[in-house]
Structures are given as structure tokens and as C-alpha cells.
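WARN retry 2 of 3 for item q-0093 after timeout on previous attempt; input resubmitted unchanged.
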Amino acid sequence: MWVFLIRRMLNTIPILLGVSLVTFFLMSMAPGGYLDTLSQNPQVSPETIARLKAQYNLDKPWYVQYFAWLKSAVRLDFGYSVQYQIAVTDLIGGRVWNTFVLSACAFVLAWLVAVPLGILAAVKRGSFVDRGSSVVAFAGLSIPEVLSALLALMFAAATKDSLGLPIGGAQSSLYDFMSPGDQFIDRVKHLILPVLVLASVEMAAIMRQMRSNLLDTLNAEYVTAARARGGGEFTVIVKHAVRTAINPLLTLLGYSLARLLSGAFIVENVMAWPGLGRLTMEAFFAKDYYLVVTTVVMAAGLLVVGNFIADVLLAWSDPRIRMEGKRS
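OK item q-0093 returned
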């Protein structure tokens, strides 16, 4: 198992290097930059622009800039944001945490709701529960996240007096003056709508997959044999059918996190959530090279972590995968 884990961890290094290299190259191909825009300000002298370009290596070819950035990134120094005039590490610290909290809450909600609903829909096939779950899943897969986020904002605005749900953002303007308990409640209130929007699509996909897997498993011969041995229906379903049907979902765990992160980029920008996705879009439009590369690498790192967790869970549930990795 340790050999399997080490091999998977080593495989992440070339992935992150490739993502950073491609991102840096593509950003260098884009015309202009933040300092070019700043140079149009008559209050900023050409000498100041030249000094800033030399300070941030922006007067050198892109590959020289990349290797200078990579040398510093090894020491966890990801450069300096010329747009915000602050170290990139200090800038993205809180943003990464906000994106992680949003994606993690949506992930937990989607799996906790979708898996039991998928099991119930398969066991009660053709019933009102099954049909209702299918309608919910169809709606979740059909409505784009952009439209869902906009509808959620309209709902929050329409019910502001009755429900008091915040309209965008991650905290209230008086957050710093609240007690710790009130601060926690305020953050939870701001999380409700973004989490529901982000989890809706993933919830529908997982529920449909779980239902399909369990329906196939319930017709398997070993499940019929378990019933013939006198096992109770609940025991047969939970111990034999569900355990087998849920294994394919483990392979989707990494992709589930990937979809949540990509969806978080949309939700953050629509609902003004101060996360990594919104910061990436702001840095991209401002052409803040080092900030764009670092945020993209951070997002790729979160995806790699999700896939790594999926590999670990799958190897834990199926020892044959560990043996195949050892032989290869």
C-alpha cells in the first residue's frame, strides 16, 4: 500500500510542472499586461514602469521568467502581484481556504444526500420516491450553474425580509464587530445558497449513478444466493449489494471534486464569493502573470489531491488495484 501511495504522489510532480509551464506560456502569448495598462496613466512615469518590469523580470523572455518563478516556488515564494502590490502567497491564502470550504461543504452535502436517495430509488424502483428523485436529478442536470446562481440571488433578494439570506459575499459588513458565535452563524448563512447551487448538479449525477449501479447489483447471482441463505432484505442490500455498487462511485470521487472546483469558479463570480475562482478571473483580466499562474497551479493541486484521495479509497476497497500498481 505504501508503494502504491508513493508512486501516486510522485506522479503529481510532472502534472503540476506541466500545468505551470503551459499556463506561463499561454499568458506570455497574450498581448499587453498590467504594467502596459498602468503605463497609460500620465501620473506614472516611464522610469517607474521600467523599474517595475526589471524588478519582476517582465523585461525578460517568458522562459526566463518561468524558471525564475519556479526557483522561487520551490521555496514556497510564488512571486509578487503587481496588481495588488502584495506577495502572491499572502494574497491567495484566504482565497484558497474560501474555495476549499465552499467545495468541501458542497461535496459533503452532495454525497450525503445523493447516495441514500440513489439507494432508496433503486430499492423502491417505480415508486413515487423513484420518480420524484428522477425529476430532481433531471432538474439538477438540466439547469446551468450560472442560471442556478442567478435564481438563487433573486430568491435571496425576494425573501430577504422573511428568511434573511445574504445576497452574495462571504460575510457581513459588520463581521469584525461580531462575537465568535455570531461570526460562525454569519458565515454559515452566507454559505447556504452557494453550497446548494454548487451541490445541485453533483448531487443529481451521483444519485443517478448510484441508482443505476445498485439496480444492476440487485440482479446479480450472489445477491440472489444471499437471499436464498435466509439473509434479511436489509442485510442483503447493505452488506452485499450496496458495498459492491458503491465501488464504481469511488473512481468518480476525484472527478466529482474536479467538477465542484470548476463549478466553484462560476458560482464565486456570480455570487461574489471571495474564493480562488474569482481571484483567478480578476488576475486574468488584469494580466497579472504570477498571480494567474499560481492560482491555476493551486486549482490543479486541489484536483490532484481529489484524484489522489479517490485512488487511495479505491485501492483500500479493492486490493487488486494495489497489486496491479506494484507489478507495473
